[in-house]
């Protein structure tokens, strides 16, 4: 009978530890449960159990990890999700969950704050779909605002270069978590928006994390910076359960930085094949257009105007003369018609005018005769005369005269001078 090996306690615990910490499925897991037996050491390490209705698991939340937790203080009875890996404490042969981050379940204070800010910005139109812009089809330079040491920047560079080796990538480093992260992200995005860098689009984000880790991308000023970016921008905050507000404010959002690079950068092979296809189509179109123009030119050059232009000019001259003759004849006929129409009327008016003129002439002669009878000239013609002195004063009595005074006598047909000799008795 084969003898069974005997192990020490330490050996068994060591083997169990290797078994539990080896598989990937136990190194990065989320566990949901209710906190019980909560305690905190003087060094700041937190210990508690996570339990459900049937079982429980011991948990450790070391101070270097729980210092990043910004949510509601942990306490017994609190329902949470804990992320971490299974570990074994060999001295006691006890396995537990070594926690790196915690998320509250339900609507915690943090989530309520995010929802409130989301409603406020939505009312301002920050998330309106009509504000979204298309990404450039062939960007030559992309700007990346993220941590220079995280996996996100490595993924973006690697995927972008794979798809288009000549792509130019401009990195604007920033903090993506913790104190000062919002201001750092805003500064990095604003820098890439400077026209002097000639950036075609921006990718801004980070790898995944808990709600607390991603809070910088829920900051109001950061969200407004995404919305106000002059350059089209992709929000790439990866692996989170819920989207952040920067996703809603950006022109586009990608679930991971890798997906953002795939969204932003075209594949060079597809571009080259597309250009080749376009070249063929362009040549065909130009060839067809040239053929159509050549045929139109042939038709035009065979027309009479090109073959015998003088004959065409003579035809036009003859047509013009014929039109002038027609116009002249039409004008003449119109005038004759008008004359025939108004001639009887004009003749009647002329006869009436002559008759009235003759009657008025006779009336004038009769009145002139009567007037002559009463005029001084008519009186002189009947033998009377007018005597005036040198001063043209008319003499009406001999007493007005002196002896030998010269006088002027006006007759009907002339004037004479006489000398006054005395009064006739």
Give a quick set of tags describing it.
12 helices, 5-stranded parallel sheet, alpha/beta, 44% helix, 20% strand, 425 residues, single chain, 5-stranded mixed β-barrel
Short synopsis of the structure:
The protein has 425 residues and is an alpha/beta fold. It has helices at residues 9-21, 63-66, 109-123, 151-163, 181-192, 220-227, 245-249, 257-264, 268-301, 304-307, 309-374, 376-381, and strands at 29-40, 46-51, 56-61, 79-89, 94-104, 141-146, 168-173, 201-206, 233-237, 252-253, 386-388, 406-411, 414-419. Helices cover 44% and strands 20% of the residues.
Secondary structure elements and pairings:
Elements: H1 9-21, E1 29-40, E2 46-51, E3 56-61, H2 63-66, E4 79-89, E5 94-104, H3 109-123, E6 141-146, H4 151-163, E7 168-173, H5 181-192, E8 201-206, H6 220-227, E9 233-237, H7 245-249, E10 252-253, H8 257-264, H9 268-301, H10 304-307, H11 309-374, H12 376-381, E11 386-388, E12 406-411, E13 414-419
Parallel strand pairs: 3-5, 6-7, 6-8, 8-9, 9-10
Antiparallel strand pairs: 1-2, 1-4, 2-3, 4-5, 11-12, 12-13
Helix pairs in contact: 4-8, 5-6
């Amino acid at each position: 009978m084969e003898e069974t090996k005997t192990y020490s306690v330490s050996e068994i615990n060591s083997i169990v530890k290797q078994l539990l910490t080896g598989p990937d499925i136990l190194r990065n897991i989320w566990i949901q449960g209710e906190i019980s037996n909560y305690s905190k050491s003087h060094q700041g390490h937190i210990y508690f159990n996570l339990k459900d209705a049937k079982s429980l698991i011991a948990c450790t939340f070391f101070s270097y990890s729980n210092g990043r937790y910004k949510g509601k203080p942990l306490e017994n009875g609190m329902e949470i999700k804990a992320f971490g890996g299974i570990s074994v404490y060999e001295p006691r042969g006890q396995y537990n969950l070594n926690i790196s981050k915690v998320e509250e379940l339900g609507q915690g204070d943090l989530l309520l704050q995010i929802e409130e800010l989301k409603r406020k910005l939505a009312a301002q139109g920050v998330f309106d779909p009509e504000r979204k812009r298309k990404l450039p089809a062939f960007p030559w330079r992309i700007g990346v605002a993220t941590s220079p040491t995280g996996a996100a920047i490595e993924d973006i560079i690697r995927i972008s270069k794979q798809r288009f080796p000549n792509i130019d990538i401009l990195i604007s480093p920033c903090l993506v978590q913790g104190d000062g992260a919002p201001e750092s992200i805003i500064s990095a995005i604003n820098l890439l928006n400077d026209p002097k860098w000639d950036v075609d689009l921006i990718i801004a984000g980070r790898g995944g994390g808990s709600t607390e880790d991603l809070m910088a991308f829920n900051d109001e000023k950061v969200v407004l910076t995404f919305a106000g970016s002059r350059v089209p921008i992709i929000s790439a905050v990866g692996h989170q359960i819920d989207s952040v507000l920067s996703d809603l404010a950006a022109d586009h959002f990608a679930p991971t930085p890798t997906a953002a690079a795939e969204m932003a950068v075209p594949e060079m092979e597809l571009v080259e094949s597309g250009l080749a296809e376009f070249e063929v189509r362009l040549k065909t179109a130009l060839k067809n257009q040239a053929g159509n123009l050549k045929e139109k030119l042939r038709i035009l050059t065979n027309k009479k105007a090109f073959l015998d232009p003088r004959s065409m000019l003579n035809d036009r001259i003859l047509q013009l003369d014929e039109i002038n003759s027609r116009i002249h004849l039409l004008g003449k006929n119109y005038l004759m018609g008008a004359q025939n129409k108004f001639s009887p009327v004009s003749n009647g008016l002329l006869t009436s005018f002559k008759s009235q003129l003759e009657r008025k002439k006779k009336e004038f002669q009769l009145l002139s005769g009567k007037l002559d009878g009463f005029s001084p000239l008519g009186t002189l013609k009947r033998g009377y005369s007018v005597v005036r002195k040198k001063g043209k004063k008319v003499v009406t009595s001999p007493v007005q005269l002196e002896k030998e005074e010269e006088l002027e006598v006006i007759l009907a047909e002339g004037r004479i001078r006489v000398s006054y000799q005395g009064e006739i008795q």
